[in-house]
Design goal:
InterPro entries: MCT-1/Tma20, PUA, PUA-like_sf, Uncharacterised_CHP00451. This protein is α+β, with helices and mostly antiparallel strands. 29% of the residues lie in helices and 17% in strands. It contains six helices and six strands; from the N terminus they run βααβαβαββαβα.
Length: 139
């Protein structure tokens, strides 16, 4: 049902976020997902710096939502006139198949103009529980 995906993605060309931006992301995650706080250090260790652009692929493959700056960065392609609450496919540069399915947290126009916060909430991604469920034969 699902296409095989090569997880050995080349993640060159990533840039590091400023520590103040990293703190802001952690703070916003805790505001939006308070039950995540005890596990945040495990998910986003303070000792490791956030990287964006192609480096975000590994985070998306772990179920992270896609932030607006990643959708508006150079090289990103955001389909115009997509309304909020639309289910969308999340594609990686150079890949034929989607690596995630998400729900638009705001319209594509809002993502372009606001350019802050969560743009797409991840609903399903490669190698998640649904993926593994689909690998099992139906009896």
């Amino acid at each position: 049902m699902f296409k095989k995906f090569d997880e050995k993605e080349d993640v060159t060309g990533a840039t590091q976020l400023k520590s103040s931006v990293q703190k802001g992301i952690r703070k916003k995650l805790i505001e939006n997902y308070p039950y995540l706080e005890p596990h945040l250090e495990e998910i986003l260790p303070k000792k490791e710096n956030f990287k964006v652009d192609k480096g975000a692929i590994k985070f998306i493959l772990n179920g992270s939502s896609i932030m607006c700056p990643g959708l508006t960065s150079p090289g990103a392609k955001l389909t115009p006139q997509v309304p909020k609450d639309t289910v969308v496919a999340v594609m990686a540069e150079g890949k034929e198949h989607a690596l995630a399915i998400g729900l638009m947290s705001m319209s594509s126009e809002e993502i372009q103009s606001i350019n802050k916060g969560n743009g797409i909430e991840s609903l399903h991604y490669l190698n998640d529980g649904l993926w593994h469920l689909a690998e099992k034969p139906l009896n």
